[in-house]
């Protein structure tokens, strides 16, 4: 399984002529198979910029992203091999799925593109993926369109699509923030189960310290593009050292219940 490294990466944007915005400043971390790192911070802290750089929707201004020690720049035109290994689940499951196509279409394309299915077994592989994310039976879901599913079901389809190439790394960018509170836990439990069974490295991006603690091995706290605190999840939550981490914790609803000793 692959190891993903984010090495001294910065991202700067030019805005309004000569002005510049440093969205991410000298951030480093290593994401290993079977481990989950939570990236926590308020809106505008740079979390989604890091996610977009990891999946090459944005390019770093400086620093390197490496997969198994190989810089992204050496993966060749199209980055197909890199993108097969590093997949992303976006925040909004409705916006990330094309409303004009069936669920089967969304899953068939990555299966064929990354040679994980043939035309002969494509239908069976689509249904297997749907059932892998607890959309059972897959045959009853495959011919529906996104608007015919609930928000939680759409996000499960998005997770299935990310799993189609058999990646080593999953970037989950606020994967439950657009869902009803009543179904968030089910989706997070599914991600946790997949992480363990597939030995995935997972970067879980969130502003919720409580879920970050319970669903990750390590937490990085991001403030204005800089990692201000990083360590084992229990240590960061129960004994925060940086003032910003303390403020995030104190701002969480009912902190006594959420952060009590496990």
H-E string: EEEHEEHEHHHEHEHEEHHH
Low-confidence stretches: none
> Based on CA inertia axes, which overall geometry fits?
globular
Strand content: 25-35%
**Overall mean confidence score, pLDDT:** 90
Helix and strand composition category: alpha/beta
User: How much helicity do the residues have?
Assistant: 25-40%
Total number of beta strands: 10
Largest sheet: 6 strands, mixed
Reading side by side through the largest sheet, how are the strands ordered?
Answer: 6-7-8-3-9-10
Number of helices: 10
C-alpha-based Rg, rounded = 19 Å
Oligomer: single chain
Quote the distance from N terminus to C terminus: 30 Å
Word description of this protein:
- The chain has 262 residues and is α/β, with parallel strands linked by helices.
- The protein has helices at 47-54, 80-85, 103-113, 122-132, 151-163, 181-198, 209-214, 233-238, 243-251, 255-258, and strands at residues 4-15, 19-31, 36-40, 62-67, 70-71, 86-89, 169-173, 201-206, 218-223, 226-232.
- The strands form two sheets. Strands 6-7-8-3-9-10 form a six-stranded mixed sheet, with helices on both faces. Strands 2-1-4-5 form a four-stranded antiparallel sheet, covered by helices on one side.
- The longest helix is centred in the last third of the chain and has 18 residues, at 181-198.
């Amino acid at each position: 399984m692959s190891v993903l490294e984010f090495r001294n990466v910065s991202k700067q944007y030019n805005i309004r002529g000569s002005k510049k915005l440093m969205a991410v400043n000298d951030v480093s971390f290593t994401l290993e198979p079977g481990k989950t790192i939570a990236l926590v911070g308020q809106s505008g802290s740079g979390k989604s910029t890091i996610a977009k750089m990891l999946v090459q929707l944005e390019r770093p201004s400086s620093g390197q992203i490496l997969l198994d020690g190989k810089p992204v720049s050496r993966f060749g035109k199209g980055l197909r091999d890199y993108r097969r290994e590093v997949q992303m689940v976006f925040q909004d499951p409705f916006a990330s799925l094309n409303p004009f196509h069936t669920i089967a279409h969304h899953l068939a394309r990555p299966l064929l593109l990354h040679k994980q299915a043939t035309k002969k077994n494509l239908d069976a592989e689509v249904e297997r993926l749907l059932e892998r994310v607890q959309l059972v039976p897959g045959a009853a879901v495959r011919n529906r369109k996104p608007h015919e599913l609930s928000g939680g079901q759409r996000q499960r389809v998005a997770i299935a699509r990310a799993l189609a190439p058999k990646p080593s790394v999953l970037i989950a960018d606020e994967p439950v923030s657009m869902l009803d509170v009543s179904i968030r836990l089910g989706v997070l439990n599914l991600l946790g189960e997949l992480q363990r069974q597939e030995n995935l490295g997972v970067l879980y991006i969130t502003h919720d310290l409580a879920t970050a603690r319970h669903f990750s091995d390590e937490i990085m706290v991001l403030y204005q593009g800089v990692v201000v605190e990083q360590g084992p999840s229990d240590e960061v939550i129960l004994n925060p050292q940086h003032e910003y981490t303390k403020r995030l914790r104190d701002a969480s609803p009912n902190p006594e219940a959420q952060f009590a000793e496990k």
